[in-house]
Amino acid sequence: MTIPTDMTAIAIAPPGGPEALQPTQWPTPTCNPGDVLIRIAAAGVNGPDLAQRRGHYDPPPGASPLPGLEVSGEIAAIGTSVSGWAVGDRVMALVNGGGYADYVAVPAGQVLPIPAGWSFAEAAALPETWFTVTQTLVMRAGLTAGMTVLVHGAAGGIGGAAIQIATILGASVIAVVSSPAKADYARSLGAIATIDYTSQDIVARVMELTDNKGVDRVLDIIGGSMAEKNVAASARGGHIVQVSTLDGGSANIALRTIMAKQLTLSGSTLRPQTPATKAAIANRIRTALLPALAAPGFTKPRITTFPIAEAQDAHRLMETRAHIGKIVLITRFGSGQ
Ligand SMILES: NC(=O)c1ccc[n+]([C@@H]2O[C@H](COP(=O)([O-])OP(=O)(O)OC[C@H]3O[C@@H](n4cnc5c(N)ncnc54)[C@H](OP(=O)(O)O)[C@@H]3O)[C@@H](O)[C@H]2O)c1
């Protein structure tokens, strides 16, 4: 296959509202010795893309300034020091930026095979959120079978991944949502119970559902006043994982309760992690989670697709908070053109 020197990409010019996303001609990335070059079929849209577009989340040094943190597609070229992959392999990858484009170069350790039975569009919806949840809730917070997990934003990308990963690992999820439709979706992914925060008291309901014990783990993207509720809803020895602060970056929490309950509060952002850390997360996903994704009957996350030329509309939909599941952009290659 001939790889063009230039490609079409969606650039942020300059940061602002969805209209900042503009199609542009861009140099095709170089495939360095440790990279694979992926011809992109689909790219997932994530919360951090919106923050980057608004000018609130700069790419780390050396990363592509183009948005897009996860893709699926076919391997178009392989770096000289890479083994285990072949040109034409169908893959999905966590990328360090540059996913809204025709091609992206990515360290080989961040690439995974597409599970059997998954389309490009479905696979592009996985990496960013599954890497984030695997690193934080599983590898850092030690989620194991038998635990109970409270998952906020449960019908979104991160929340949906948390439900599915916890369920695969044998934990039980209580999902926090804002509508009956989102509750139905969370249950379809495996949640054993839901709490509608618009009409129910989260802490009281958690205590009812856990015989007053509280939850062993919390996956929170809300922050602000939710932090206090997370502490109150946690069981002794619990661990609260903070991966975003959509409702506020400051909180008033009861430090004595953290001491009395022996709680841990940890936080993380995925993008600045080293390639070695991202490769370790990929290995964990490959061994602990991919077999379940390929099993017959596995419920895939719901996706809403847009042609990549309509990236602005994709961002507008995400900003409404009405969407359920993931939003995915389809390139010309992904649409078969
Ligand atoms: N730390 C990391 O490494 C990392 C990695 C990826 C993503 N993130 C962050 O995680 C957050 C969620 O990302 P995502 O891709 O899961 O987004 P998403 O698909 O839009 O899901 C967010 C969910 O949270 C709920 N929500 C509750 N309060 C909200 C608020 N104030 N603003 C927006 N949504 C709210 C929304 O439903 P309702 O409004 O119906 O409740 C929605 O279901 C983003 O802030 C993103 O930047 C962090």
Describe the structure.
With 337 residues, the chain is an alpha/beta fold. It folds into two domains: 6-126 and 271-330, Alpha-Beta Complex (Quinone Oxidoreductase, Chain A, domain 1), CATH 3.90.180; 129-267, Alpha-Beta Complex (Quinone Oxidoreductase, Chain A, domain 1). The chain is 29% helix and 27% strand. It contains eleven helices and 15 strands. The strands form three sheets. Strands 3, 4, 5, 6, 7, 14 and 15 form a seven-stranded mixed beta sheet that branches. A six-stranded parallel beta sheet has the order 10-9-8-11-12-13, sandwiched between helices. α3 (127-140) crosses α4 (157-168) and α3 packs across α9. The longest helix has 14 residues, at 127-140. The model has no long low-confidence stretch (mean pLDDT 97). Residues 46-48, 51, 128, 132, 153, 155-159, 178, 182, 221-222, 243-244, 246-247, 268-270, 318, 321 line the site of NADP nicotinamide-adenine-dinucleotide phosphate.
Any idea what the CATH superfamily of the largest domain is called?
A: Medium-chain alcohol dehydrogenases, catalytic domain
Number of DSSP helical runs: 11
Segments where pLDDT lies below 50 for 5+ residues?
A: none
Helix content percent band: 25-40%
Briefly note the structural class of the backbone: alpha/beta
Number of domains: 2
